[in-house]
Design brief:
Elements lengths: L2 E3 L4 E6 L4 E6 L6 E7 L9 H8 L9 E3 L5 E8 L13 H6 L9 H10 L13 E3 L23 E7 L3 E6 L14 E5 L1
Antiparallel strand pairs: 1-10, 2-9, 3-8, 3-10, 4-7, 4-9, 5-6, 6-8
This protein binds zinc ion.
Organism: Sphingomonas sabuli
Protein name: Urea carboxylase-associated family protein
Pfam families: DUF1989
């Protein structure tokens, strides 16, 4: 049975080298922020800059590796029903909602949820960088570099599967940002095999 991440919450869990993590969108149109740390040395974490540099693309899918800040492969994408994910933007946070949405009493967002879930593993908030945002749909204008955050292309039951290339601590959210998911906060499901 898959585990469930409730709307606007986050979790942390262990993923061993060689295990596969399936992240699925049970209702469709929801985003899941995924971040990974080397379990043996949490200074090593997912790096969007290195990953996109080596891929020479900003949209990643089946067959693409996700690299760490030390240029080691942390995860491989081994299956992908959707083909559109984001690896440019940081987890939504109370500052996102304050600056971008003008909220006066902002939700703590994926960032706050990840910080709370990762704290028991000795990972402080300042270590949380750019997450791999499963199903997040951020089309970029190739001429101007401007981008939009549009509703995900994921349909109910769509999934993306990662294989761990080292022992990891994973943080995972059901995104809290209205723009990411078309204004509908939904759960996310995950399973390890
Ligand atoms: Zn979010």
């Amino acid at each position: 049975m898959p585990h469930r991440v409730e709307p606007r919450t986050g979790v942390a869990f262990m993923l061993d080298r060689g295990q596969r993590l399936t992240v699925s969108d049970p209702e469709g149109g929801q985003v899941a922020d995924l971040i990974a740390f080397n379990r043996d040395d949490v200074d090593e974490t997912l790096s969007n800059g290195r990953t996109l540099d080596y891929a020479s693309r900003i949209y990643l899918t089946t067959g693409d590796p996700l690299y760490s800040n030390r240029s080691n492969v942390m995860l491989d994408i081994v299956e992908d029903d959707v083909g559109r994910h984001d690896f440019l933007l940081t987890p939504c946070s109370k500052d996102t909602f304050r600056i971008l949405y003008g909220d006066t009493d902002p939700h703590r967002g994926c960032f706050g949820n990840l910080a709370e879930a990762l704290a028991p593993h000795g990972i402080g908030a300042d270590r949380i960088g750019t997450a791999f945002n499963c199903f997040m749909n951020v089309p970029v204008n190739g001429e101007t570099g401007t981008f939009e955050v549009l509703p995900p292309l994921s349909k109910a039951g769509d999934r993306i599967v990662f294989e761990a290339r080292m022992d990891l601590i994973i943080g995972l959210t059901a995104c809290s940002a209205p723009l990411s998911n078309g204004g509908s906060f939904k759960p996310i499901a995950w399973a390890i095999a």
